[in-house]
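Continuing the batch. This is chain 6 of the set; chains 1 through 5 are on the previous pages. Same settings as before, nothing changed between runs. Recording input and output for traceability.
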Amino acid sequence: MQEDARIAALRKMADAHPDDPRPRFGLALEYEKAARWEDAVRELREYLTRTDDEGNAYGRLGKALRELGRDDEAKEAYRQGVDAAYRHGHPTMAGEFEDVLEEWD
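Output for chain 6:
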């Protein structure tokens, strides 16, 4: 399936089921693959309003915001990812995000 077709299908699912976070995450991944960072940020934020993420989406949000040069927002996303990862028992993921924050500059 072509990228635009996948995005269209996921958009249709997101519109049909606005409270379901999964199509939003799928859209964010497609936008990330296409380096459509603003779109990825929008969908990740929508996803995060609908679910208690275990950390992965916060890391992706941090990366997308960093690509856009929005470092303060990116750092906050990574910090939220650290908290979420520890809360859900994923210390390795939390450590990866902590490393990103420590090595920022």
